[in-house]
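Researcher: Can you fold this with pyridoxal-5'-phosphate in place?
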Amino acid sequence: MPSSSNDLFQRAQQLMPGGVNSPVRAFRSVGGTPFFTKKARGATLTTVDDRELIDFVCTWGPAIHGHNNPVIRDAIAKALEKGTSFGTPNPYEIEMAELIVELVPSVEKVRMVNSGTEATMTAIRLARGYTGRDKIIKFAGCYHGHVDSLLIKAGSGALTLGNPDSAGIPDSFAQETIVLPFNDSQALEVAFQEFGDQLAAVILEPYPANVGLIMPKEGYLQSLRDLCSKHGSVLIFDEVMTGFRVSAGGVQQRDAITPDLTALGKIIGGGLPVGALGGKAEIMDFLAPLGPVYQAGTLSGNPLAMAAGIASLRMLQESDIYDRLEKMGQQVQDAVTTAAQETGLPIQVPQVASMFCIYFAEETVENLDDAIATDTDRFNKFFHTCLDNGVYLPPSKYEANFISTAHEQTAIDQACDVIVKAIHGL
Ligand SMILES: *Cc1c(COP(=O)(O)O)cnc(C)c1O
């Protein structure tokens, strides 16, 4: 007899810390037992218990074309016939680099890596090597993967588990990281006044999406760009989440702000493990083998991963794709807003393109403190009601929802119906 999610989770907990290989999967924030997925197709996950769920997690962002997309699968199959890894340069890497340079406005040169974490880690080292400075600024609630100097007041799983500051990070590292509240121009000015000539870099998610979803205030990103230019600090956009998601060229294209370096991941791998760091050639050329900043990867530029990523990015060049995704995002936002009005419940639904978040709060969420203050109990009840009725939202109030091109109108209609009913039941 096939094992149930409950049985598998019992076994998993004996074998893996918390039963998972990435913390948020454990449902610690919302309570209950996580389900195990046996297969996924389009917008649907099928659990080992034979439940079918409309998925708004989309493997935490990458699946913009839905699960098990046939075009991506074919690209992987074709690459597979030629081999799984060469350890030499391969033609796919060129195609991938050309696509990234074409799509992402600020990128002149690129280095492929295997995860978003590697991309941000390398970005920080490169900025330090390039400027000869040590200090960096990050923002409370921004998550940049599990990099030592960036796991300070971080978002996503770190926040979900109530420890935005990880154990195991020496104070001496943490002292080089200045943490500021997001959307606070004055705090930014003060920090630059005090530390401007010591600042190697400022790193941020231009639309923070690991603390729910927060939009920058008008002019905020531009003021950051101006301050970095004035003080010779490297501006790093972490677009691991927003890259290829909010537009083909990410936030930098949507808001017309040019960072110096950009970290990419998630969508760029088409569902396989890929990340990338790109930016100005002058800075990128500080990387080995040209420059003094070391970085390497046994499987970097892996042909299967490149083939999947290339297929994923090429499909994003279809003309109306972002319009279609935006419309679906707006439909969900409208449905939730109407339900909030009908019930009188305080709900905020920030939405941009195919990303949205449902906060139980009176006021617009502008920073980490606002996000923490939103109603957790109400979110958790809402989450479980949706899940019980076949709609899988991210299992934490600090995560963003994603829509894919495989979410057909019927799936969106059905999901909106479930979400609206869940709100009415709160
Ligand atoms: C997911 C994410 C990362 C980390 O990427 P991994 O591939 O999980 O290492 C970094 N930054 C942002 C903004 C992310 O959303």
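Model: Folded with pyridoxal-5'-phosphate in place. The mean pLDDT is 96.
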